[in-house]
Amino acid sequence: MSRVDVVAAASFLDLDATLSRLRAEFNAMSATEQALLIDRTAKARTTSRQCAMVMGAGGSFIFLWLLLIGGYAALTANRLKQTAVDRKNADDRFRALLETAPDAMVLVGKDGRMVLVNAQTEKLFGYTRAELLATWLRCWCRSVFATGMRSPADRTLWSPRRCARWLWSGTPRLAQGR
Fold this sequence. Notes:
Blueprint: H1 3-28, H2 31-100, E1 106-108, E2 114-117, H3 119-125, H4 129-133, H5 142-147, H6 152-156, H7 160-167
Antiparallel strand pairs: 1-2
């Protein structure tokens, strides 16, 4: 016999001895105890099946919930991508419209810095787009700021809207070009 067969035979003998001991204990039990043991074993099996069903149903519910959340996240991501594409298309159309305008146009941010200029503005002032975008609108309205604002209180009244109104009011301006 090989060593494996010896180990298997020993394990089989231990198992057989354990089963014989359990049979002897089961036979020593009274009929009432045996009925109680059988009843509790049946209840344990039923409870185990019910737990498995609850866990299966709960797991299914969680799985469906995760699918729903995943679907919602995918839809939201697609909408955000589409919104970004739509915004970019609208921005491109606006820039194209601004470029084709026959007049010089300047868009100014809240801080008074030029944000967007068209080709006509470049021709009017004789500076490149990069040079214009690096400056504030008030740099092109020096006569207003030099003559109209003598005190610090007057300087606080300056706004891009006020300067823009002054620039496009129809009277000749002293905007400085090259």
